Write the structure tokens for this entry.
Amino acid sequence: MKRRLTIAIPGGERSKAYPIELLRRAGLHIPDLSGSRSLKHELEEVTLLEVKDADVPVYVDIGVADCGIVGKDWIMESGRDVYEPLDLGGPAYRLSLIRLRGATGRIERVASKYARIARGVIAAKGMAADVLPLNGKLELAVTVGLVDAILDVVQTGRTLVDNGLEEIEVLHKLSMRLIVNRAALKLKVPTVRELIHRLEP
Ligand code: PRP
């Protein structure tokens, strides 16, 4: 690769495993990073930054990172204007509206880690519900009656079953995506193109 790229990926042992596997499959030499708590890795061909999922689009849009690998949910939630050239697949998951199994009646309050997406969904449906932004473990919020519904990601569905919940609507099918800073796309054309080509499923 001609010009060195900085790539932002979700940090943490579980989150970074798939992005690193993808980059290795693309032919990049990435050593075992599991023993390191460092968040910036200057590697042979690229620099890797480990950030929170939600922040990957921010690093890429502002340009501290040229590219990022992150779930479509966080790209949508960020509202950032980044180029998204590639669907990288990975474990299939979905964004769903979820309630207690068998629940009926009006939805007046919806909790989500994705407040922006939730507000959009509620407006599009013409629902008069408030959005309560929470940071995780949303299933509990419905179980204890804090909210009537949650908008959350579902992968295996196990968490729903174990908490007595059900999906009432699947809103988006999601997967991991490659995102690219719009200026880097122009300034580092051959390098970015090569990365896209190498990552293509
Ligand atoms: C996510 C999501 C669900 C769970 C879904 O939570 O918010 O709780 O995974 O997975 P499943 O369908 O395979 O059971 P995560 O583990 O990211 O933790 P969080 O609730 O703290 O955000």
About this structure: The helical segments are 13-25, 56-62, 72-78, 115-125, 138-143, 158-162, 182-187, 189-199. The pocket of PRP is lined by residues 113, 136-139, 152-159 (CB under 6 Å). The CA atoms of residues 2 and 191 lie 6 Å apart.
